[in-house]
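User: Can you help me understand a structure? I only have the sequence.
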Amino acid sequence: MLKNYFSTAHIARAGIICSLYIVISLVCAPISSGAVQVRLSEALSILAIIFPEAVPALFIGCALSNMITGCAPYDVIFGSVVTLIAGTCSFFCAKIIKNVPLKIIVGGFFPIVLNAFILPLIWQWCYGFIEYVYMVQVGILAIGQSVSVYLVGTPLYFVAVKIKNKMN
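Assistant: Let's start by predicting it. Here is the structure, written out as tokens:
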């Protein structure tokens, strides 16, 4: 069973997802980083509910994007770990939930909520934001993540499912 996760197709798909995450983050750099952000590459997080290899690919893509854009080392590490945890939660919830709309809603919930509530804490630690700004940051990130995950990620989900079905 485990060897199926290390097939050429899985590794290639992980590489593509990771690369897309980086490219989208860099192309959209003015809005992908900073205190006010809509990281459109986070739309790819919806792929974790379809492909298990998307989970490590998103983690690596996030880490490399953060390194390339000059984030603080702790932001690179812990921000990427948040993406890894969110992807893992989304993947396992999708295994349990069979209803597609509910799967998208619940699968998208983790990247939105975990990033919204944890990233401002990481940023406060790394960059010294003032404490009372925390809830403002949570709101801004929740909106940005919702746009990326639900508005952009939902159509991506249906395209990815079609492609996966054609491959099988």
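Now, to help you interpret it: DSSP finds six helices and no strands in the chain. The helical segments are 8-27, 29-32, 54-68, 73-96, 100-127, 134-167. Let me know which part you'd like to focus on.
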